[in-house]
Write a structure and sequence with these properties.
It is a single chain. This protein has 73 residues and is an all-alpha fold. Helix content is 53%, strand content 0%. It contains two helices and no strands. It is globular, with a radius of gyration of 15 Å.
């Protein structure tokens, strides 16, 4: 039986809103419309993976730029 404990907890709890905003921005940029009702069960796995992959790519880019001492975008 699965527990309700998630291993995907945020280090900075206030980052949840920023990550959610990034999800919508990335989806809009790659032409995927997110459901307004919040139910993602009808979304293709390929689309969800594309959104997640682009978010990860953007976060890595932001971290690399921060380590290099430059601003993002």
């Amino acid at each position: 039986m699965a527990s309700n404990r998630s291993s995907n907890s945020l280090v900075v709890p206030n980052a949840s809103a920023a990550l959610d905003q990034m999800k919508y921005e990335v989806a809009r940029e790659i032409g995927i419309s997110l459901p307004q009702d919040g139910y993602y069960g009808d979304m293709a796995t390929r689309d969800a993976g594309a959104i997640g992959g682009n978010i990860t790519r953007r976060l890595c880019q932001m971290a690399e730029m921060q380590l290099a001492g430059t601003a993002f975008r």
